[in-house]
Amino acid sequence: MHRRIFLAEIAAALAASTHASKLLAADGRPPRILLRSSWQTVNIGDIGHTPGVIRLLGQYLPEAEVTLWPSNIGNGVEEMLRRNFPKLRFAQSSAEVAQAFHDCDFLLHGSGASFVAQKHVARWHRETGKPYGIYGITLSAVNAEARELLNAARFVFFRDSVSLKFARDEGLKCPVMEFGPDGAFGVKLRNDAAAESFLQASGLEQGKFLCVIPRLRYTPYWLIRHKAMTAEDDRKHARNVEMQEHDHAPLRAAISAVVRDTALKVLVCPEDESQMAVGKRLLVDQLPDDVRARVVWREKYWLTDEALSTYVRSAGLFGLEMHSPIMCIGNGVPAIVCRFQEQTSKGIMWRDIGLGDWLFDMDRPDEVARLVPTVLALAQDPAAAKAKAAKAREFVEQRQRATMAILRQNLES
Q: Which of 169, 250, 261, 281 is the most buried (most CB within 10 A)?
């Protein structure tokens, strides 16, 4: 679809939704959405996809009944979701999924690193013939089945422009293919009590610290899941070892600059379960003594609500991860992203939302050289940094409204 037509449809959809009567399904009841999401719990970003989209559905489609079809909501995630979304329904057993297939009108595939639940969308399409859409994914490959399913979707929203270009270059024919923000931008979860307790115990004051997140080139799932290493794991581990100093030395330099040139402290914290050890070994333990004295190490993993309650009390965040920055910008907190070739193209979304000068390719020396002064500038001029973050959030929220309007339009048709 040409952008002009898409924008015209968005305008019409927004106008219609603004003045519409209560959204109802064809038989007069509330529409029912089956959300396929919640891929894993070892990463607060993967956790965050789900509550982000659920919140957007509640904000823009409050009449709809939402059922979550998760892959994994263990480790306290289910309790967190139930606490924050008491009306949310769950389809976890085979019988519950079958009932959801019967009851729901529309399947929404949540954000992810790829067309994660392709086989489940295929099952929905095959067994129900009901409509479905894809929300905020990265895409870098399609097989014959994926091509057929994506073409048959009511919409596919890509979370980065590289994926959108790939889809168009591949000749995909879905009627609506556009940029749609990662669902984690919508997360507003809080666990203020836990965050305040941690900050007080750690000697951190609101607005007087930056967060930094380490990351290896490949997530060591063999450690997280306590599994024997495969030959492929051995290859990934070797690459991690090869690049760990290259990737973390610039972060240490930025930490040192912040501590020595500003009044801020630094919190080294994780996005996934492996990063507490990585942060201690590659960041904290290698800092000069004068710097280390004002650096706090988060020793334990946390869930998305406590992490975000901590981020919003900080002066900003930088590091080698993606979804903590996403949730920061979604809440107006400045965030700098460092990426590398082993990751998907998701990092390009920082350029897409107007934060290109807060995106650093760690495989490019010229960009790495700019990291320390950029982090220091963020720390030294918090007002300008917050204004920049607010502008990006405003763009993201406009896209959220537009994408939810398209979903509403499809529920009405």
A: 250
Tokens 């939402």, located at residue? 66
Token representation of residue 29: 């009841």
Distance CA(72)–CA(75), nearest Å, equals 9
**Which position has the token pair 């609101």?**
206
Alpha-carbon gap, residue 203 to 293, rounded angstroms: 11
Contact between 268 and 212 under an 8 Å Cβ cutoff? The reply is: yes
The widest CA-to-CA distance across the chain, in whole angstroms, is 69
Assess contact for 87 and 54: CB atoms under 8 A. no
| Helix, coil or strand: residue 2 | coil
**How many angstroms separate the CA atoms of 194 and 39, rounded?**
25
pLDDT by position in tens, the chain (length 413):
345 445 555 655 555 554 455 777 667 789 999 999 999 999 999 999 999 999 999 999 999 999 999 999 999 999 999 999 999 999 999 999 999 999 999 999 999 999 999 999 999 999 999 999 999 999 999 999 999 999 999 999 999 999 999 999 999 999 999 999 999 999 999 999 999 999 999 999 999 999 999 999 999 999 999 999 999 999 999 999 999 999 999 999 999 999 999 999 999 999 999 999 999 999 999 999 999 999 999 999 999 999 999 999 999 999 999 999 999 999 999 999 999 999 999 999 999 999 999 999 999 999 999 999 999 999 999 999 999 999 999 999 999 999 999 999 999 86
Each as own residue / partner, the long-range contacts of residues 1-6 (CB below 8 Å, 24 or more positions apart, any chain) are 1/175, 1/176, 1/177, 1/178, 3/178, 6/176, 6/178
Secondary structure of residue 22 in the 3-state scheme = coil
> Are the CB atoms for 207 and 314 separated by under 8 Å?
yes
The burial class, CB within 10 Å (0-12 / 13-18 / 19+), for 45 is buried
Number of residues assigned to the chain: 413
pTM over 0.85: yes
